[in-house]
Each structure stands twice: as C-alpha cells, then as structure tokens.
Specification:
Blueprint lengths: L4 E9 L2 E6 L2 E7 L1 H10 L5 E5 L11 H10 L4 E4 L5 H9 L4 E4 L1 H5 L2 H10 L4 E10 L2 E6 L4 E6 H11 L3 E6 L11 H8 L6 E4 L5 H10 L3 E6 L1 H4 L5 H10 L9
Parallel strand pairs: 1-4, 1-12, 4-5, 5-6, 6-7, 7-10, 10-11, 11-12
Antiparallel strand pairs: 1-2, 2-3, 7-8, 8-9
C-alpha cells in the first residue's frame, strides 16, 4: 500500500479562510497565513489553497496572501482559483506554489491542461473536479459548485488525465461539509478509470471516515478536509497515529 497523505484545505475568500456546507453558507474561520503555518508545523503532508470566488468573480487569484502563506510553510503547496491561462500558472508558481489546481479554467479551455503539462510537467497540473449527482449521474459543476456544466464527470476526468493532469482532486458537492463520510461510491468509480493519484475531498466528519476511506479504497492516495481540521475536531498527529494503528501507512512526523 502506498503512503497516504493528509491534506488540509484553505478555502479563501476576501483574504480569509471560510467554510460552508454543500458549497453554500460560507462562514469566516481564520487567517490563511496563521492556519497554513500551523498545519506545516503540526503534521500536514501538503496544503491546498483555493481562492474560491476568483472564477465566479472573473478575476485573478490574490497573489499577495498566497506569497505570505508560501513563505511560512515547509510542505508542498497546491494552489487554485481563477487559473485560466499559462500566465496564471506562471504567476502562481512564482508566488511559491508547487502544484497548480485547475477547475473552471480547464472546463472553458481544455487545452490548458495539455499546454501546462507540456511546459511545467504532469506532476505540476492538478485537476480539481466539483461533482454532484443529477438524476443519478455524476455531473461536473463549475464556478464553485454554482453551475452545472452538463458534462458527465467520469468521462471528463478520464479525458483530462489523457491530456496530462497528474493528480485528481475529487470534490463531492453532495457530501461537502455534511461530515458523514467521504463519497465512496464516486471515488471508487474514479479510481477504476484513472492511474494517477486521486485525492478525496468532501464529507470527512471524524477520524473514522479517513480509516474507512483508505481501507475501502486502497487506490485513493490522500484525504483532504477543511473544517474538522480548522476547528480542532480532528488533530492531524492523532489522525495519523490512528491510521497507523489500523495498518494504513502514513508519513511520519518530521
């Protein structure tokens, strides 16, 4: 079994970390710089930074806050939000990102994935997909989960992998913020069709949900969560200890 990663996610709006339920009802949590530094020092394997309203507001990502976060952490940083061009990739990477996450930008311009993979390498390109069930089908949503694209999710993900996406973050809108567990049905369907790393996002309510995720779906590479880490409901060192006790291989504390 490959080593599993634990990844906190900073959903940033107007310079503050926020969290909602099913992508709605956003509440202020904390400073992204303070939280990022805390996670870097307390066992997180990576950090994800999303400027969650950049795409829907039609603007570029806030690079000043990103630079400050990047300067305070010593773990890999994935950044997304308003990534629509190769210039956006370049700008974010120069601010300290290790990987760049694309979602709405890839939907609008699918060639962005192949162009970025060719220029920066597959390992730098992360496809983030917001998925929701509509009439029994997994559908891709854009603009922070506000807009149904009409695209079926599994075929879209497979297409993006072929174009050069080196990692897939699967955001289940159905389970986001509900804290009743990851969307195992959706994740299993995706693991069956891709060979690149899959990161599960949306639904974690406690340590048991991570144990269930990795035991049920050994192909999932990482578990991503936000509010349970932000509010101290789950402490990453305790989570890793419990995973190890359940014979799930995790990265040890530095």
């Amino acid at each position: 079994m490959i080593t599993k990663r634990i990844i906190p996610c900073l959903d940033v709006r107007n310079g503050r970390v926020v969290k909602g339920v099913n992508f709605e009802g956003l509440a202020d949590v904390s400073s992204p710089v303070e939280l990022g530094k805390f996670y870097s020092e307390h066992g997180a394997d990576e950090l994800v930074f999303y400027d969650i309203t950049a795409s829907s507001e039609g603007r570029g990502l806030f690079t000043d806050i990103l630079r400050e976060v990047a300067s305070q952490i010593f773990i890999p940083l994935t950044v997304g939000g308003g990534i629509n061009t190769l210039g956006d990739f370049d700008r974010v990477l120069k601010c300290g990102a290790d990987k760049v996450s694309v979602n709405s930008g890839a939907i609008q311009t699918p060639n962005l994935i192949s162009e970025a993979a060719k220029k920066y390498g597959d390992q730098c390109v992360v496809l983030s997909v917001d998925v929701k069930r509509v009439n029994g089908q997994f559908m891709v949503f854009a603009k922070g989960g506000r807009e149904n694209t009409g695209m079926e999710a599994l075929s879209w993900i497979k297409r993006c992998e072929k174009m050069g996406a080196g990692e897939i973050v699967v955001n289940s809108i159905d389970t986001d913020g509900v804290k009743k567990g990851f969307d195992l049905e959706l994740l299993a369907a995706i693991c069956d069709i891709v060979s690149v790393p899959v990161i599960a996002s949306g639904g974690a309510g406690g340590i048991g949900d991570f144990v269930e995720l990795f035991q049920a779906l050994p192909k999932v590479d990482a578990g991503l969560a936000a509010s349970i880490f932000h509010f101290g409901e789950v402490k990453i060192p305790v989570l890793k200890k419990t995973l190890a006790e359940n014979h799930i291989i995790v990265r040890r504390e530095r």
